[in-house]
Amino acid sequence: xxxxxxxxxxxISPNQQGYYSLDLAPTFWKLLEDKANQGVxxxxxxxxxxxxxxxxxxxxxxxxxxxxxLFVDPDQQVQAAYTQVASYVMTNYRQHRAQxxxxxxxxxxxAHALVSHGKVVSxxxxxxxxxxxxxxxxxxxxFNVATISLFEMFRELNVVLEFKG
Length: 165
Prior knowledge:
Mean pLDDT: 92
Low-confidence stretches: none
Order of helices and strands: EHHEHHEHHHEHEH
Strand order of the largest sheet: 3-2-1-4-5
Strand content: 5-15%
Distance between the termini: 36 Å
Number of strands: 5
């Protein structure tokens, strides 16, 4: 079973903010592929679609790997879990906020993690329900799905990234 499911921003932030940009840190990107090939981490196809729609340098990297082990299509179990996640979100959040959340990859990410008993890797932080913005950690908590940061995942995997000059 896949242990870690990566959110869209786990790709965008490292590349845009430069700390693991494609041109400066190919080791980071190779690590993601290697861990996917080992079955340790995965990304829902919906994250792939979000990344391809961006049309930036990351798009080419994702597009070249869209049929690799990195990206997984939802099966019937994940689709059933998605229905549970969608029902929870529609019941607990304002309609426009719920629809916005359900229109993206996040509910699918949570559904995959729920089915595989994995963890969601995300940069999002939990907020109060009063804020009414649907956040991955809040929804994950409702389903007892753990959320961790990219760096926490590295620590759990005992990964040390070395950069050579």
